[in-house]
Every structure is written in C-alpha cells, then in structure tokens.
Amino acid sequence: MYAWIIPKDMSKPYLSPIFARAVHSGDWPENEKGWHEFCIALDNSKSNLIEVDTYSKDGVIHVVTIDSDTSGWTPKNAYFGSMDFLNKYDLEKICEEISSQDLEECIKIDKKYGYQEIIKIKAQKDIDDLMSSALSFHDAHIESIETKK
Q: What value does the mean pLDDT take over residues 79-99?
C-alpha cells in the first residue's frame, strides 16, 4: 500500500508506504470501526515509523491510499493487517518497539516505490486504486463510462 499522508497540523502532505493498519483498542460497534482506524507509515523525514489516524474526529482524512496492493501482507480482517515481516509486532506499539533492521527494511521499501502522479486506468488494479483513493466516490455517482479500444 502507498498513500498520501496529511499531517495532523495540516502541513504539506507527503508520500509513504503504509506498512500496517489497525483499529485502536476498544469495543467499537462495526459501523464505527473506520473512525478508529490508524495506519503505520514513515514520518516526513523518512527516518521513523509513525501512527497516523486515518480520519480525525471532524472527518478530515489523513491517509489517502493511492496504491491498495496488499500482496505481501498478513491481513487479519478488513481493518487490521501488516506487511508480513512486521506481523510479529503489536501494531499499537510498533513505532516504539520496531527493530533497527525492520525499520531499515521499511525505509528501503519506500525508496523502491516509483510514484506516478498520472495513472491511466487500464486494468482491475488501476480501478481498485482509483476507488480506494476516491473513497469509492462516497456521496457521488458516475453518470457514464466510455472505453476506447
């Protein structure tokens, strides 16, 4: 997974892989779990992992997924999972407990990613990424789709 991270102070967004996602501890009703979701990403300096709430209480989105690929992940359910090499960590404590070797692996993953700002929709993965980044066009609808060749 790869995403735009919008810091809590609403300063300049930056790109980072998403290494894990989870729901904060608590007994949340199913329809409220999304409001308690957080992701593990690199900080803006690309030197440490940070926990980023996906949404703030006032509905501001802080994680906009642009690549929804979770191959190489160990998903546990729709709200919880991590890259395979990180599944040994408690995701609410990973930022403090991650080993230096695993942190270096996270930094290497970030350096390998080649972000393309303009992506042509050609395959199902492209559609999945578009729907993820647009939050499935929540409160919107598509009037028509035109395909050429």
A: 91
